[in-house]
Amino acid sequence: MQIGYKLATEQYGPQELIRQAIAAEAAGFDFVEMSDHYHPWLNEQGHSAFTWSVLGAIAAKTERIGLVTGVTCPSMRYHPAIVAQAAATMALISEGRFVLGVGSGERLNEHVTGRGWPAVSERHTMFREALEIIRLLWQGGYRSYEGTYLRLEDARVFDLPPEQPMIAVAASGAASSRIAAELGDALFATEEKPEIVRHYREAGGTGPGYAEVPVAFAGNESEGAQSALTYFRWALSGWKVMSELPNPVNFEAATAQVREEDIRERFACGNDPSRYLEVAKPFADAGFDRLVLMNAGPDPRAFLDFCDAELISRLRELKPAKS
């Protein structure tokens, strides 16, 4: 079992994210996972630094900790040729510590280029084509590609790492799990649903499974729940909402009825390690073996100290279900 720390680009500015990554390495985390957004989920969060610039700085200022995008959409806001180049460069800068986490995107971030927001079946086809282009470019040489939605003309990534970065593909159902199995090296999810892992395994997927565990560290349960309610209530909206709404103001409206008790039910709030293990265990039981702590609490430094002293070693003892 590996334990990761979520760097929330929506919640903190770039310099603070770098400081948190350095502190996460010192605290003993195996990797940091970093969201790749153009907009925050809520206006209260107030940030959206360019993930790839921050990742490069983190790679230069750390030595051991793994780096994961959680997740990048390689088919709309970015052309897959750019993602292939960026990921190859990150793999070189980090000396093999980088994992490319990818997904089919959310309207919140991808609509900004003015291309519209396709139906989910079209997004999945575009996503599949994007992954095929990335794989093609990582083979080296000049490459071209003619897909239904995406094209590539005489492109070559000159700086390639000795080994291709692992690709972790986000999935929420059977269709996306099949894409993860066929074109990815690992699975990425935000829900503790065993069927996501089952679909992935049934489609032939053999790689590790990344999953985000919602927590809100604070001096007491109420303080943690209030912080999560203010800044992370979007996490309770569900994937069908999260992928479709265009702007933070829409998420504010969609989550206006979320209550503190709803947060307490979903998040581990406060500072009791047993509650954190209780919330994390269903993810391990579902078959995930890369657990990412997504902290919605008000003091990230205190949370990292808590993880170092009381939590990481206990989380490592969780056993993923055999598949």
UniProtKB/TrEMBL annotation:
Q: Which UniProt keywords apply?
A: Oxidoreductase
A Pfam match:
Bac_luciferase
Q: Locate the Luciferase-like domain: which residues? A: 8-267
Q: Which InterPro entries does the annotation name? A: F420-G6PD/mer, F420_G6P_DH-rel, Luciferase-like_dom, Luciferase-like_sf
Would the keyword Oxidoreductase be found if you checked this record's keyword annotation?
A: yes
Q: What EC number(s) does this enzyme carry?
A: 1.-.-.-
GO terms of molecular function = oxidoreductase activity, acting on paired donors, with incorporation or reduction of molecular oxygen
NCBIfam families the record matches: F420_G6P_family
Q: What is this protein called?
A: TIGR03557 family F420-dependent LLM class oxidoreductase
> What species is given as this protein's source?
Streptomyces reniochalinae
